[in-house]
Amino acid sequence: MFYPINTLNKLKSIGSLKIEFRELTNGFCVFTTLRIPAHYPIYQAKDTLIFQNQTYQTVQVDEQTHLLDFVFANMNHSCNPSTFIDCGSLTIFAERDLEPGDELTFFYPSTEWRMERPFKCRCGASGCIGNVKGAAKVLSSSLNRYRLNRHIERLRNTILTREKTASCAKILNS
Ligand SMILES: [Zn+2]
């Protein structure tokens, strides 16, 4: 599913949104039109479509659920993200003070455990993780630098517990 341009143009005119869409060479990007202090909410998703299966435009909100929302779907990834999508409240929060015209980006592994379309990151941030994949495939030392959603933390803990149990079993069997 893809949001056609005329839908995006209509959404641009919704006055209460603090955001606008622009079409750049790499596709649609989302920008703030206002000055927004760090940690302030920017947008809350309301009319979302729920998917059991992931697409490259959905955002994972828990272990089993993927949502399609027109703003989330058009936000780019950054390794130095300007926002955080809180999957509990479906709200985008500013990660730092934002000025009008700043792009709204988020760290994709903060919501996605696996990604349908991994890609090479060109965000240019220092500490860029390089290949953007779901959190399952990102080094722990990199993930530790970011705020992650609870379902990602739960999935990480499940893997860590499994690994610990496996290594204990190995020791017991040796
Ligand atoms: Zn990057």
UniProtKB/TrEMBL annotation:
Can you tell which superkingdom this protein's organism belongs to?
Answer: Bacteria
Provide the protein name: Nuclear protein SET
| PROSITE patterns xrefs | SET
Question: Which residues belong to any copy of the SET domain?
Answer: 17-109
Q: Which SUPFAM superfamilies match?
A: SET domain (SSF82199)
- The UniProt transmembrane annotation reads none
